[in-house]
Amino acid sequence: MTTVILESTITCPKCGRDQAETMPTDACQFFYECKACHTLLRPLKGDCCVFCSYGSVVCPPKQSEHSCCGIDAQDS
């Protein structure tokens, strides 16, 4: 059985600030506002959420190799 990690560190591509956040297990997070520079982060093309694009750990569904918000983890 795979252990799912629920904490991911998001790194802002604009200012470089790192912030540890707890990932939701029941929804994708499409937006994240950097606490330092207030840049609104959105998922990069092909990613389902900001954790998959900017986080140190991908979202819980992708860790478990399940589809996430309509995107099959094996197709990305």
Order of helices and strands: EEEEHH
Tally of DSSP helical segments: 2
The counted number of beta strands is 4
* Low-pLDDT segments: 72-76
Name the helicity range.
10-25%
Q: Whole-Å distance between the termini?
A: 22 Å
For the largest sheet, list the strands in their spatial order. 1-2
Structural class call reads alpha+beta
The overall pLDDT average reads 87
Structure description:
The protein has two helices and four strands, in the order ββββαα. It has one domain. The chain is α+β, with helices and mostly antiparallel strands and 76 residues long. Helices cover 12% and strands 18% of the residues. The protein is globular, with a radius of gyration of 12 Å. The strands form two sheets. The chain has a two-stranded antiparallel ribbon. A two-stranded antiparallel ribbon has the order 3-4.
Core attributes:
76 residues; two-stranded antiparallel sheet; alpha+beta; 2 helices; 12% helix; two-stranded antiparallel ribbon; 4 strands; disordered C terminus
Describe, in short, the structure shown.
With 76 residues, this protein is an alpha+beta fold. It has helices at residues 50-54, 60-63, and strands spanning 7-11, 18-22, 32-33, 40-41.
List the helices and strands and how they pair.
Elements: E1 7-11, E2 18-22, E3 32-33, E4 40-41, H1 50-54, H2 60-63
